[in-house]
Every structure is written in structure tokens, then in C-alpha cells.
Amino acid sequence: MAVDTRATGLHTSRLDELIAAQERIFLDRQPRSAELLRRARRTLAGGVTSSWQIARPQAVWLSHGAGSKVYDVDGTEYVDLHGGYGVMAVGHAHPAVVAAVSARVARGTHFAQPTEDAVAVSEELARRFGLPLWRFANSGTEATMDAVHLMRAITGRPRIIKVEGAYHGHHDSLQVSVYPPAEETGPASRPASVPASSGIPDEIVGLTTVVPFNDLEVLERVLDEQSGEVAGMIVEPIMMNAGIIPPVDGYLEGVRELTRGHQVLLAYDEVKTGVTVAAGGVTELSGVQPDVLCLAKAIGGGVSTAAIGGSAEVMEHITSGRYDQVGTFNGNPLAMAAARAALTEVLTPDAYVHFATLRELLAAGCQRVIERAGLAAHVVAVGAKGCVTFSPHPVRDYRDFLGIDDRLSHCHWLFQHNGGVFLPPWGKSEQWLLSVQHTEQDAQRFLANFGAFADAVSS
Ligand SMILES: Cc1ncc(COP(=O)(O)O)c(C=O)c1O
Asked: Of 159, 219, 239, 365, whose CB has the highest number of CB atoms within 10 Å?
């Protein structure tokens, strides 16, 4: 039996028809992508290079990017608000990054020895985030893995606390309760620890305690119950893999106080929020200092890198060699050259003013469309990031997020794509990323597509 969707009052079969029609348009526009996918499936597992590149109805194959745009292999131009999953805050082929990387390529790209750029980048991160000491890695996964190892090494305790529905990368300890199905989540006051994929041993899953976001009561009870077992807590201080879920007033301060009170370390995962929501991430916005901070994505200006920062006491365990923070490509010269240019020449104070201007334009424009069309939705936006959440109510945690009908986000994604705007393909989970090279015209294209979508679903 067809049912009404929660968010629009739209008949389910009508929404499915709209999606089917948009998927046909999508496929008709991308014959060359289809050809490449057929070829790729013979030698690339699933025809992609990471499972999260799979999109419905088909992975999009890109040829190049320039400024605020990317181009698919069929020659179609898109305003890029996907940003390579939250990386390209500098935009594509920014002249400062091109110059820095080109100069570095000509002088050698890898030595596994430090270069001067690494010092400049660590100085800039120390200035932005207020933590004195840094090390580099190559991905967000490596950064949060180092944070977990470090917290265990310092305390000598095995247990880690993480938030239900938060994604911190694909290493074992945090591949727990990432997108657990509703029937496996257990009671809200005592969420179950659910492996996020096959291949994660129960013994490891059992060492990760899961708590709801924005709930200090449960956190306090867990810390009391597991007193003496917990090494640290890792939290994404604005959740960004469930749309965007901001912390409620006092939550981050409460987490800081409770963890400190229980002699438990606190790690912030600012892989996504890092230099995008503000120059110094949520650390700057909230004024709450973690013991360990993880960065990746946008700090590299489009080249793969990551960083962990910490207080002097925390990083002493690395300095002294008690924890070996290692990696052949850590601080790779190419990545450091790109990161230095991105952080010191592109993501300057003016960049954050530009993000705020375009964010306001997008947020106000979306809100107008939502009201005109009577959509049960709202906009959440901070810094260069934002999304439309198809729920009439603010989303407070993963369980609220689970209740949102993902087909509306998918339908919106298709309208944007077919209208020349590229958003991340994972429906309600993801959000847009602005770059310094986006313009008001780019924002207007997004708003026109959003208006067309809203008219279609509300007619
Ligand atoms: C909050 C957060 N932490 C960590 C990661 C892992 O980063 P990477 O994909 O670079 O390993 C991601 C990736 O999306 C992320 O969103």
C-alpha cells in the first residue's frame, strides 16, 4: 500500500515516479560514463575506486575540474558542491595550489624526510586550533586511528566511547554503529555497539561504547559505569555524516567537563569541519579545547593529507617514542606544499567572509523555496557547509536522522545533477561544500534547481 511521506504529504508512488523520471534523464545524459563503467567493472571491483563513489543510478565519471566547476566525461559542466566529499574548499586548480604543487613536482615529490613546508603547515595549524604540537598522516582514517591509539597508549586503558551514527573512517575501533539499522540499535539510553561492516571482530566491537549525540546524561552514566576502563572519547563536534547535526547549547562544554572529570581523554574529529566551518573549525567556534584533534580533507587543498594535533602532555607520548606515530607518506612533500598554499594563501580571512556571504544567500533562498512550496524541511548551514534536511523538526541525534525519508534527498540530488549542480550522492547523509571560487551565479543555479524540485514534489 502506498503511504504519504512524512516530509511533504506527497503520495509515495508520485515520488517514486519523479525519481524514476529523473534517473532516466540522468542516464540519457551520461552515455560515456556508462561505457567507462562497463569497462571498469572488468578490473575495478564494483567499477569504482571506493565504494562510496557508487551512486544511483550510476557512478559519475569526471574528466576535470576548474574553479567552481567539474566536467563529466560526456562534457557536461556542473557547479561542484560535492567538493570531493568535503575536500575542495580551495576550488579546482586554484592558481596558488597549482603553482605550489608544480614547483614541488619539479623538485621531487617524495623523500620520507621532512621538508620546510611541513613546519609551516604545523605552525599554521597550531595558530588556528590553539594546540601546540602536530604530526601528519594521509587520510582522516589514519588521523582518527592515531587518536585512538594515542588515547589508549597514554591511559593504558582499552575502551573508546563514540557517538551513534558518527563516521570516523574505516579502521576497526571506530567502524562501530556508523549507520546501524533501526532494528539493531537497541534502547536509546543504552545504544548497542553494532559492527559497521563485515570483517570487524566482535572482540574489537566490544571495546567501543556507543552513546547518543547531544545527551550528557547517558554519557555521564557510561563514564560512571565504565570507570577505569575508558581511554578516551572521540566526537565529531558538529555531526556531518548525518546531514548536519549541530551540538545543542552546552553539549560540547559538558562533554569536556565530564571527560576531564573522569580522567578520560577527548578527541575531536574535525576531518570534515576542520578548516571549513571556520578557520579553526568547531574548536574555534565552540571555544572548547579537546586533548587530541584530527584533521584531513580540506587542509590538503586537494592532495591527500591529514594531521593530528595535541596538547604538550598528549604529544609527549609521541615525542618520547612511547607511541610510534609513523607512515611512509606522512608529511609527503607534495601534500605539504599543497597544504601550505591552501592554508596560508587561499583559505585566508577573506575566504571565510566569502563563505558566509554565499551561505546566507543559499540558506535564505532555500528557506524561501521551502515556505513557498510548503515543504516540511529546513536548512542547516555553518561556514562553507550546509544542507537541506527533509524534516520539519531540528535533528538532534542519529535516531531522529533515521526517521527521515531518504527518497526526498535522492530526488533532490537528481534534480540538482540534471540541472548542472553536483552534490555528494549519499542522500540525506551528506552536505554541500562551498569553495573560494564559487560565485553568486553558482548559488543561483542551485536555488533554481531546488525551486524546480520543490515545485515538482509539491504539485
Ligand atoms: C568525520 C570524518 N572522519 C573521518 C573520515 C575518514 O576520512 P578518510 O576518508 O580521509 O579516511 C571521514 C570521511 O568521510 C569523515 O567524514
From this structure: 239
